[in-house]
Amino acid sequence: MLKWVLAASAVLAMPTMASAQDVEAGQKVFAQQCAACHKVGPDAKNAVGPELNGLSERKSGSLEGYNFSPALKTAAIEWTAENLDEWLADPKKKIPGNRMPFPGVKDELKRGDLVAYLESLNADGSSK
Q1: Residue of 65, 38, 48 whose CA lies nearest to 121
Q2: Helices 108-119 and 23-33 sit at what angle, rounded to 10 degrees?
Q3: How far apart (Å, rounded) are the C-alpha atoms in residues 97 and 99?
């Protein structure tokens, strides 16, 4: 009986282990798909898009010194993992009227890795 309980536990734990997000892989996704417009790290400054340090600690449209679209300002959503995932999947659907010309990250695994990477950055650009 104990064998069956252990086997069932292992099977139930598999989806969790398989879906663990990879911050390092997310950093690569960021470099490939985001870095042209957004900056991160200790010396990050606003560019075409706002710098993204400490993103998970703020609301949309609230970073000082960046001219956000009215849609992002009025949405005032908190950048939780869930909201970031929805935003990165389809920015125009998540917040209609925003100005970000990005079709989204359609690959769920890459998107999850990217969210993990963004959530790993403190407001000063250091890693958590």
Answers
A1: 38
A2: 100
A3: 6
> In the structure encoding, which two tokens stand for residue 63, read together?
């970073």
Length of the chain: 128
Sign of the alpha-carbon dihedral angle for 30, 35, 40, 42: positive
Instruction: Kindly state the DSSP code that residue 1 receives in the 8-state scheme.
Output: -
Tell me how far apart the alpha carbons of residues 113 and 72 are, in angstroms, rounded to a whole number.
23
> Per residue in 25-62, pLDDT tens?
999 999 999 999 999 999 999 999 999 999 998 999 99
Is residue 23 a contact partner of residue 113, using CB atoms and an 8 Å limit? Answer: yes
Beta bridge partners of 62: none
Q: Is the dihedral of CA 117, 118, 121, 122 positive or negative?
A: negative
